[in-house]
Design brief:
413 residues; BirA Bifunctional Protein, domain 2; homodimer; alpha+beta; 2 domains; Rossmann fold; five-stranded mixed β-sheet
Chain lengths: 413, 413
């Protein structure tokens, strides 16, 4: 894409109403727009990154047999009354509204209830199990404070997958498959090294629950990391009894700040029993379906990646989620040899399937480089007088600032 | 995809609480799930069709230079107060809520206001114009009645594009480009022949406004069609004066039922003046930006396509939006020659990039064919005893029921 056509502009100054580093940088770089506290629109560069994160997660969910759907934001309160999650005293983050025709509705805080009901129309026999269903959909939470930028919004996108099984063994196999898919997702997002499966206090169904925590100075959580085993526990689990059960030696643990980047839950039959999701087994007996739920905050992930990788010059994206792979920066003026060289290189790279943002504007080199650093595209290819003359281009790696001289033909590999 | 793995099941009977043909069929076929009146979730087959419609529209919006973003559902009421579209007496379809921290918010009924504000951060000079921005995003309308299935929902997805220009000529060129893109979209959706650019009474900025109307017995509108010129007028424009202005002869007009399938609006400077979106021209003068807006209801389109193409046996999809191109129906039992032939054909077609739904289940042939008709996939390839023996397959075209005998190698073309 030619940058002269990209409608977003960058800003030199951080917006005065943002305290979170992620929102400051993403707004400055024109990736997002703040509508209100905790409510952000995604502009072209931000949407491209968001879609790359979505696609990575989608591929891994499909690979373990997830089937994609999309549920609604508007919720039927009668469903949530049955599971006792409608009442203000139980769940205090609902956005609630009235229908014009009478009756209450609210905006989905999560989707266990509606999906369990959907599945009652589609699961009746053991032959219908196991199955897994997921979506990318917005959640809404009426948070009193929203100070963490896109890491904790009032409106945010999640991938949520739900598993349905006929036995504990089948459920454990689904749980293990999704857990492994999450590990692959964090690898592909460039976060594997700093993301820890973390034990938290158990739910109803097991001694411990698990979540994924990614180390970050912006983290709201404190975890205790065993670096060798690459696992962690949270504060609740920091008791001798719990550590003994987990086989973790307290002496190996290091305290770190982290942010929750994924969660995986055993739900047992809590929702299926309450909402009547059952199946008939091989003997003709009727049994409740065993469920699990597995979430990753997709917009939150944009924030985590920003917090983890950005530096004092601006954003830094891993290749897998960068809005473009290459930032082609021309130092020429319209019509001169430099511009012509850059134009042709842009066309050729684009034809070769490389995603290129092409800075074809008439601006000073210093201004262009500063903006390029702010945008955080992994490789910058500079076209100046020398490159136009020799066909050898300066390539700067955003992550470490390394500068190489690369002949034209090698740019395509 | 193997149908034995698809979690959705079809139903023989129409749901008792649906009067609209589109919702009855889409629910029966397992494409959608009704959460509440006018609120529908999209299940795997429905989501595949929805995504194909989205992709066709996206390609045409990109082709005319649209830049994709995604705005939020939650709205800042102060913006809508400035344009006088917040007050109940002016706009009575808002879902309104309170923030936990105090203050009101509502769910987007459309997005002129937030996008105009976003653009004030990015447009300041004539050099920033023209530009066009679009999104696929949910709208929410608190309709008193919702009886038209997915054609008129309380929560529905729209593609909305907005154009920004520095002069009337530039605006007219944008308007013409998007109008032409809409014509191409209706062609690709298989609706060109029955979709008419239709003149309605003018807004503030012109004698007439235009909308696209698609002929359908389920239509809520009545239009008057000049079939030769392939244009139409609505009832408001059926005056001698208006027809004379448009050069339309009343005698050529035929009354038809139709449904609005797209709209295109000149907005002039209504939003830019009110919300302060201006640019500095070549002479240094400050001027308001000239805007247009262009909508297509994406979920509504699923309903229109159903109403227009479905027959007494079930859904019928144009190839461009069908969830799969081929429904491969095996009449074998697990392990027999027929099943092996079908398995291999499924693998080979999938490898060749053909999107195949493979009915690999142990069911009676009659049941499979009836369900296949209900699902509406364009081509059905049947694998029975003869096919397994001869390598010649029965291919049924869903649209007209035509049956052909096709040798295996020709199935790939």
């Amino acid at each position: 894409m030619r940058q002269s056509r990209l409608f977003t502009k960058t800003r030199r100054e951080a917006p005065s109403d943002e305290t979170a580093k992620n929102a400051q940088l993403l707004v400055r770089a024109g990736y997002i727009h703040k509508e209100m506290a905790g409510v952000y629109s995604y502009l072209p560069l931000g949407l491209r990154t968001l879609n790359k994160i979505i696609q990575i997660i989608r591929e891994e969910m499909d690979a373990v047999g997830g089937q994609e759907i999309i549920m609604t934001a508007l919720q039927d309160k009668t469903l949530w009354e049955r599971t006792d999650r409608w009442d203000e005293t139980k769940v205090d983050i609902w956005f609630k509204m009235k229908f014009a025709g009478g009756g209450d509705t609210g905006l989905a805080i999560t989707h266990e209830e509606p999906l369990t009901r959907i599945m009652t129309a589609h699961i009746s026999s053991y032959r219908d199990l196991p199955t897994m269903v997921y979506q990318f959909q917005n959640k809404f939470r009426n948070e009193l404070r929203a100070k963490s930028g896109v890491m904790r919004g009032k409106e945010f996108m999640m991938k949520d997958l739900y598993s349905f099984a006929k036995s504990d063994e089948e459920h454990e196999a689904q749980y293990a498959a999704v857990r492994a898919a999450y590990v692959r997702i964090f690898e592909r997002l460039g976060l594997a090294g700093r993301t820890y499966p973390t034990f938290a206090s158990g739910g109803v169904f097991s001694d411990f629950s698990e979540e994924f925590q990614t180390l970050s100075e912006a983290g709201e959580d404190t975890i205790y990391v065993d670096e060798k085993k690459h696992i962690a526990v949270n504060r609740e689990v920091l008791t001798d009894e719990a550590l003994a059960k987990l086989g973790i030696d307290r002496a190996t643990l290091v305290e770190k700040k982290a942010v929750e980047s994924g969660n995986i839950f055993h739900l047992g039959t809590r929702f299926s029993e309450t909402l009547g999701l059952s199946f008939t087994d091989e003997t003709g007996a009727k049994k409740p379906v065993i469920m699990g739920s597995y979430g990753i905050g997709v917009t939150r992930m944009v924030g985590i990646l920003t917090e983890v990788f950005a530096d004092e010059k601006g954003l830094v994206w891993p290749e897998s989620v960068a809005p473009f792979a290459v930032h082609l920066v021309s130092l020429g003026k319209e019509g001169d040899e430099i511009s012509k060289t850059a134009d042709t290189l842009y066309d050729d790279l684009t034809k070769a399937g490389v995603e290129v943002l092409y800075d074809d504007r008439d601006l000073r080199a210093g201004e262009k480089f500063a903006e390029s650093d702010l945008l955080g595209i992994p490789k910058r290819v500079v076209v100046g007088k020398d490159a136009a003359a020799t066909g050898v281009f300066e390539v700067v790696t955003r992550l470490n600032g390394a500068v190489e001289k690369v002949p034209r033909e090698q740019l395509f590999s």
